[in-house]
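Weekly sync, protein design subgroup
Attendees: M.S., D.O., the rotation student, P.L. (late)

Item 1: inverse folding check
M.S. brought a backbone from last month's batch and wanted to see whether the design step gives back something sensible before we order anything. D.O. pointed out we never logged the input encoding, so this time it goes straight into the notes. Structure tokens as presented (566 positions):
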């Protein structure tokens, strides 16, 4: 919308009942309700969106990052109305948006893929057979999506059935289709992607690469450009391979070729047929507006630059500021933003979707915004991001900032020695507090937290640490707890008496136990969906299920009692 405003183009937004007062609604020139609450009732309701296009007289549609951005049927319906689709042709979306056919397109361009299947997986037995053939672990991935949604790692045959069901449910909820395929899971790869642009005049260029290896739950947390230790020869080879893949499918507009890089070799992973969340780092190192180029291409104009005219300068890093509790396994943390202070200064950019007073809903994605920095080299960019994160203040919900500061300070990240599994396997997050400041100084007194308070003495200002009552949910400081309180991902709350409570607001999608069943500490009890992600709620003690107070389909609030174990 900001690019459109700069180009003198009026914008039209759609919104659900939940998003009636959302930032994008306030920013647009016009906004229309499509009703509903869940994604299926609102932003995946094609008929209602088509009605708005007709009513508003809009002559173009930009699909953004998610929902319909990789849906060929929606793109086809838009173009059938005579409205410009600011994205790739429906045929290219079908070819590349379906990750299975994308692997075939890569093969046509002579680009090697990660070993995997070329047909949708039908049952758990196929998962088991693939794992036995290629070795465990393996990955189940949504065929019609990306961003880590609908992706499950299977470590053993006994996990196959539940993982396949869970991947299908997540994919259906977020992308409207549940098909999935299988891939071999590489042990320590880096996730490197190539940004391409293609116009209707036969021009296809690659703008550079992004390293997106810092991930949790297979979703990107920090991205940067360029990838620090790639040789120019490897970088060029990856860029040229990306162009081959795009040409093999007749691609037009912005797209991203994702690859895995390990031991000096790279493999095609998938293509995202849309603009990526992390496109901003490419914009900062190339000084190009990719959204403006998308609009130019959709208008029938050629690219405003050639391959030889692309110049990459400096280093950019992006942190996705998500509403998640870093101290509790990155559990979703919906809530209302009571206060918000955005950092500024040279080389700092904020692309946000919320303002003070806005609510981050449980029904949609948990991305609050993107903090991006640029500097002449990687280390200065890293230090600039640390400075910006230290100045970022948000109250009312938990965010990923504490974990991001810890990563950026880590010597292995500074030395560029990380991989896609590094954060979850090697970085100790147990010392992070679940809210602002540090934990209380005395054992058992969890109601106190550390605050830095400015105190003036004889005309000099000092920062003094004091212990104050903890706010119900406070925002972000990445300070480590002086007395760590580890919390396992997916654990529900418990008061030591076997009472399992909801760690967040969400919807129960599956109950895995029944009254009278014996369970052990760590066993999965039920699956709770929040912000389009499934979270397993685990037993915190061994015993027998005494009460089961929820069923599939029930919406619960944080703190609600779910199960009682005796």
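Designed sequence read out in the meeting:
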């Amino acid at each position: 919308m900001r690019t459109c405003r700069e180009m003198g183009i009026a914008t039209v937004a759609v919104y659900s009942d939940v998003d009636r007062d959302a930032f994008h609604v306030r920013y647009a020139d016009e906004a229309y309700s499509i009703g509903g609450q869940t994604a299926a009732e609102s932003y995946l309701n094609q008929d209602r969106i088509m009605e708005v296009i007709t009513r508003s007289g809009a002559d173009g549609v930009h699909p953004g990052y998610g929902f319909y951005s990789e849906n060929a049927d929606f793109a086809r319906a838009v173009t059938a109305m005579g409205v410009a689709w600011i994205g790739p042709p429906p045929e290219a979306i079908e070819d590349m948006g379906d990750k299975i056919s994308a692997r075939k397109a890569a093969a046509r361009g002579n680009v090697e893929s990660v070993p995997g299947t070329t047909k949708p997986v039908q049952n758990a037995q196929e998962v088991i057979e693939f794992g036995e053939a290629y070795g465990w672990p393996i990955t189940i991935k949504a065929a019609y999506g990306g961003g880590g949604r609908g992706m499950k790692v299977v470590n053993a045959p006994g996990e196959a059935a539940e993982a396949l069901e869970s991947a299908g449910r997540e994919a259906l909820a977020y992308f409207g289709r549940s098909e999935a395929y299988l891939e071999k899971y590489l042990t320590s790869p880096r996730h490197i992607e190539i940004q391409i642009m293609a116009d209707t005049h036969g021009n296809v260029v690659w703008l550079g690469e992004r390293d997106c290896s810092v991930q949790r739950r297979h979703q990107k947390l920090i991205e940067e450009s360029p990838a620090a230790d790639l040789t120019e020869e490897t970088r060029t080879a990856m860029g040229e391979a990306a162009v081959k893949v795009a040409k093999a499918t007749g691609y037009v507009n912005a797209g991203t070729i994702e690859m895995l890089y390990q031991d000096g070799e790279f493999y095609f992973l998938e293509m995202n047929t849309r603009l990526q969340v992390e496109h901003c780092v490419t914009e900062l190192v190339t000084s190009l507006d990719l959204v403006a180029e998308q609009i130019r291409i959709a208008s029938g104009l050629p690219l405003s630059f050639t391959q030889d005219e692309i110049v990459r300068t400096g280093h950019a890093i992006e942190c996705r500021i998500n509403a998640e509790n870093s101290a509790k396994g990155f559990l979703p943390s919906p809530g209302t933003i009571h206060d918000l202070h955005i950092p500024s200064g040279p080389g700092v950019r904020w692309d946000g979707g919320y303002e003070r007073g806005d609510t981050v809903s449980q029904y949609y994605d948990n991305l609050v915004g993107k903090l991006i920095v640029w500097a002449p080299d990687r280390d200065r960019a890293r230090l600039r991001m640390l400075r910006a994160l230290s100045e970022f203040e948000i109250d009312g919900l938990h965010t990923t900032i504490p974990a991001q500061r810890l990563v950026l300070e880590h010597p292995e990240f500074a030395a560029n020695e990380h991989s896609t599994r590094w954060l979850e396997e090697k970085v100790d997050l147990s010392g992070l507090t679940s809210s602002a400041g540090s934990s209380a100084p005395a054992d058992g007194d969890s109601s106190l937290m550390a605050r830095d308070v400015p105190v003036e003495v004889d005309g000099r200002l000092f920062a003094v640490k004091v212990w104050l009552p903890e706010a119900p949910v406070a925002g972000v400081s990445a300070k480590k707890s002086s007395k760590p309180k580890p919390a396992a991902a997916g654990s529900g709350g418990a008061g030591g008496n076997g009472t399992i409570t909801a760690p967040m607001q969400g919807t129960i999608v599956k109950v895995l136990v029944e009254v009278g069943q014996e369970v052990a500490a760590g066993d999965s009890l039920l699956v709770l969906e929040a912000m389009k992600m499934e979270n397993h709620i685990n037993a915190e003690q061994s015993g027998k299920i005494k009460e089961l107070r929820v069923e599939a389909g029930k919406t619960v609030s944080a703190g609600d009692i779910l199960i009682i174990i005796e």
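Discussion: The chain is about 25% helix and 30% strand. Residues 436-450, 470-489 have pLDDT under 50 and may be disordered.
Action: P.L. to compare against the previous round before Friday.
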